[in-house]
Amino acid sequence: MMTSALQFSKDKTFSMFLVGPMKGTWQITGHNVALTISELMGKKMSEFVAMARSNYTNDPSPRNKSVLDELSKPMIGVLSSEGKTLTMKPPAGKAGLVYMKG
């Protein structure tokens, strides 16, 4: 089991710790919450992706390419009707995350 933390700010930014620190912006539409990562492990996303791509000696493996593709998209979660849980929609074949207001 893994522990993760997610904090929302009124200025529509968030910070999250999941394998490493992340920062970005959030947007809510109905019960859907979109989290767009702008910084990962202390690097801007563009720098992080460029660094990851430079580590490939040839074409990226399908797994690594999939990870980079997912990082370039907003993460989508569904907020419960009472606003106490946020269930993240996982990429295909991955486990989901549920955040509970503490």
CATH level 1 class label: Mainly Beta
Distance between the termini: 18 Å
SS field, number of helical segments: 2
Average pLDDT taken over every residue: 84
- Share of residues in strands: 35-45%
The value of Rg in angstroms is: 15 Å
Order of helices and strands: EEEEEHHEEE
Sum up the overall morphology in one term. globular
Biggest beta sheet summary: 8 strands, antiparallel
Number of domains: 1
Shape-level CATH architecture:
Beta Barrel
Q: Which class best fits the helix and strand makeup?
A: alpha+beta
What are the low-pLDDT stretches, counting only 5+ consecutive residues below 50? none
Amount of helix: 10-25%
CATH topology group: Lipocalin
Report what the structure shows.
- With 102 residues, the chain is α+β, with helices and mostly antiparallel strands.
- It has 2 helices and 8 strands; from the N terminus they run E-E-E-E-E-H-H-E-E-E.
- It has a single domain, classed as Beta Barrel (Lipocalin), CATH 2.40.128.
- Strands 1, 2, 3, 4, 5, 6, 7 and 8 form an 8-stranded antiparallel β-sheet that branches.
